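Input sequence (702 aa), recorded before submission:
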Amino acid sequence: MSFSFLAPAALGLLALALGPVVAHLTRQAIREERTFGATLLLERMRSRLERRRRLADRLLLLLRLSALILILLAITRPELTWPETRSDIGGTGRVIVVLDTSMSMDQRISGLAGSPDVGRTAFEAARAAATSTLTALPAGTRVAAVLTAPPLVVSGWSVGAEGDGAGLAAVLETVSRADSEGDLHGALVLARGLMGGEPAEVVIFTDEAGPGQVAACDQDLERIIAVGGAVVPRVFRPESPENVAIGDAAYGEGMEGGAITVSLLSFGEVEREVTTTLTLPGGQTLTSFVAVPGAVELQPGAAEVRFTVPRQAEGGIATITVDDSSLPADNVRSFHLPRIGASRVLVIDGDPGSTPTRSETYFLERALTPSGLGRAATDVVGPAGIDTLDPRIHRVVWMANVPDPAPLVPRLGEFVRKGGGLVIGMGENVTPERYNTAMGALLPLPLRRVRDLDEGGEGLVEGEPSSLLAPFRSAPGAFSKVRTRRVMTLEAQPPGPAAPVVVLKWSGGIPALVHGKVGGGSVLLWTGTLDLGWGNLPVEAVFPAMVTRLTAVLGGETGGGGAALNAVVGESVQVPVAIDAPELEVVGPDRKLRSAERSAGVVAFKPDVAGAWRVWSGAGEGSEVALIAVNTPPMESDVRHAESLAARQAALAPDRLLVHLDLARWLAVAGGLLIVLSTVWAAMGAAGARRPVQTEESNAPA
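Predicted structure, token format:
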């Protein structure tokens, strides 16, 4: 409801109301008084009359001022407006019910005690109101219904002999709320399609929550109004909406095994203290109490909490939980946590030396020795020890100058495709023909030949951007002292999105470290040696840090070794799979199978609940293709009510959808009545003043 003046400039005339006040206050007073006998009786009479008239004079002044102000206000033409509210639905003969099934409708309604909706969720109250509206429609009304999350037509136009909405009401009673994001705009697009350019009433049962949701409907409202239709909002929400949600959770460096930083957001007006619980993939839990300040204007309240992770923790999906009862649907957030602690590494020594320092893997073993945080436990074997490779124990395999890789390929290929990491180092024992024939499916690029470089060798420089060596970007000169005299050259890099990445290269342009993806795992090809045979890398300070980083990244798989993906409830998830992959299964957090669509190289599905989702290759829990952390849409956590459908619709068509009350005539009539009343009052006062006053002196005998 709003109040406005059609002629605001006339408000200046209100200054005229000061006239009677000034005149009343500046009445001429007697400047000089002389007392004589006859005036004493008059003085007594005058005092008595003034006492009797004092209140009357003030009331008369108030009446005259009020009359003048009301008439002047009438000249400004004030107007009272408010959005039209329809108590009766079905006047157009066609009604479309839009039911908001988004996550924010999980709020519980609060308000005056005794209200039938108090204690119920907004969705439960809205669904009950929608079914009541449908069953109460006049006979012959055509009805349809649309949901908002995701937008889909529940039922097209239907009509019956009587109780037209009863059938559709029964359908709506079976509808459940979703944890996905609402699309009010999409629902109105479907409603406009049902209208087909003809008038209809679109009754929306919603909480109007979410930034930008109402504003996105402007064009839909305009088009519905243009064909003679109208949107009738029915709003259900708590009297004072509030919600604490998890903004983000990220793992990083820190004490012990690192730290997880969690950001919390509050969309209420007051500070809230909540219990925050971290659950690691292995089942360990950590708890913290956090005070989250209230929202200020457009900015939600924010707080941060850090959890210290144990030295060893399984990789997989971890969860953060808050104990907030206002909107339970977004109280849990899932995120990927890498394996922390001693990941086991298998080192295959292709050229064991007569002494430890002459061994091909001497420097590699020193870099992998578990002497500090984040280092891996190492098993060193010769090529014949490939049978000890166990995917349940080992995370990464380092091959150093192995002469014949053919006996290793069957076990290595299975290991990598299931999510393992493989690093291949060159040397004098490596023959390009043998490697290309035996390991062609694993090598990022085919080998060409060994090449001797110019005297002094070539330095090492960064190649394409990659997360493999992200920590070294802050130290641009980390590889500046590394040089090599010989190098294994590679065939040309094929174009395409699946092309391998040259992470490091020699200063002459020859690739040094190449990263390729094979199935669910990774293969790194180092074109130098892992000892001092061709270059000085093992004795440079960057070598241990480089080996540790590559091992940590390749061995930090999430659980079963599949791809680690993130997704949102209700949105499509695209998981790349091998074209020749066997039967695929999509499993939800409840361990139940879900339907999915498979095309060439991709399996797609839409998660309906938050949590850890898995895609398996093969029947049962076979090879894990992907592990997906699914969360609720962050926009739905903002339950604040920013805009109104009724107000925006009224702004688009004020002449049709606003009730206008012209106050000018009523003010003029009231002003006229006060003038008449003040005139009568003044006349009565004058008549009383002229009436002879009987005094004791006048009644005394002469």
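Checked by second reader. Residues 344-554 form a domain with the Rossmann fold fold (CATH 3.40.50.880).
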